[in-house]
Design goal:
This is NADP-dependent oxidoreductase domain-containing protein. By secondary structure, this protein is an alpha/beta fold. It has 14 helices and ten strands.
Length: about 350
């Protein structure tokens, strides 16, 4: 396991972090075993959020007795002081700890949300207050708009930033990672499999592993998944492999969707998932989780071409800050079912 100094925090973190978002979806004993096995194998970065159902409670009940062994990161998606303070206090109780190593202002995707969080009565001030009280050590920010995150971190108010980085979403490399490096911030990459779409797992993990980040959080739910992720990182990435991965990322990232979720579909198509998986689906096919997503979305995808209000001007495309051809990609996805 590779360990690096996490920005200016003074903490050394493992290159693989444990993303606990999906733990509420499996039996408690399985989740507990996965967390403890991860710690046994040297993973020392645990990531969760107050909004991940009972993920924080699972962490508290499973590994709080080993609190000195891991760097604990959680999140609040509240924007005002009062709600954020209440949520952080609940997080401490749920995770059975007195200190959160990293509190992240979570899922900030618009200028309005950022301004609200940074106001005098905003969530950032609540995090600073918890830091003054000794209950939070460092403050970070997360979001899906890398170019906006690059601007927001430039003022030196945050210790860490969390962002997408995978073969189908390489966009953080352009502005965000260089700015975080200049600020000497902790750099945490998330969704190496892009929510279960990218395969093979080994290749997917090795792409962010080859880039300038400190830790990659993978949403693991079993001992076998922990083993699979660790195995992908056993060897360092050489120059030739890095070049091949970067070329592949250029191809798979050509959809240009950042998953900012500005778009919305009146018939319920989950547009970002279809955009991001479009090139992966054509190049590698999908993991079982990806196949399951397409089956659940089948009726909505097939209905896109017949939805009358979008015939002349797609409603989703009006909201996209990147002006992407979303209707075209969704309708092309209908061919996935014909091929099957």
């Amino acid at each position: 396991m590779r360990y690096t100094m996490f920005g200016q925090t003074g903490s050394r973190v493992s290159s693989l972090g444990f993303g606990a978002m999906n733990l509420p979806g499996v039996p408690f004993e399985q989740a507990k075993a996965a967390l403890n096995y991860a710690l046994d194998e040297g993973i020392n970065y645990i990531d969760t959020a107050a909004g991940y159902r009972n993920s924080e409670e699972i962490i508290g009940d499973s590994i709080s007795h080993r609190r000195s062994e891991y760097f604990l990161a959680t999140k609040t998606n509240k924007r005002d002081y009062k709600s954020a303070m209440e949520e952080m206090e609940r997080s401490l109780t749920r995770m059975k700890t007195d200190v959160i190593d990293l509190l992240q202002v979570h899922y900030v995707n618009t200028v309005q949300e950022f301004k609200a969080a940074m106001e005098e009565d905003g969530a950032y001030q609540a995090a600073l207050e918890m830091k003054r009280k000794g209950h939070v050590r460092f403050i970070g920010i997360t979001g899906h708009r890398p170019e906006l995150l690059a601007k927001w971190i430039s003022k030196g108010q945050f210790d860490q930033v969390l962002f997408h980085l995978n073969l189908a979403q390489p966009f953080a490399l352009q502005e965000l990672i260089p700015e975080a490096t200049r600020q000497n911030m902790g750099k945490t990459a998330m969704k190496p499999l892009s929510g279960g779409f990218i395969q093979p797992v080994s290749k997917a993990i090795r792409y962010p592993y080859s880039q300038d980040v400190h830790t990659i959080i993978s949403g693991m739910v079993s001992i076998d998944e922990v083993k699979e992720n660790i195995a992908a990182m056993r060897e360092e990435v050489g120059d030739e492999e890095r070049h091949e991965l970067e070329q592949l990322a250029l191809e798979l990232g050509s959809h240009n969707c950042r998953r900012c979720n500005y778009c919305s579909c009146p018939i319920g198509v989950t547009i970002p998932d279809i955009m991001i998986s479009s090139q992966v689906r054509q190049t590698f096919g999908l993991l079982p989780k990806g196949d399951g997503f397409y089956e659940r979305q089948k009726d909505k995808i097939l209905s896109c071409a017949d939805y009358e209000p979008c015939r002349e001007k797609p409603l989703c495309e009006e909201k996209c800050p990147y002006h992407l051809p979303m209707q075209q990609v969704v309708q092309q996805a209908a061919g996935y079912f014909n091929a099957g």
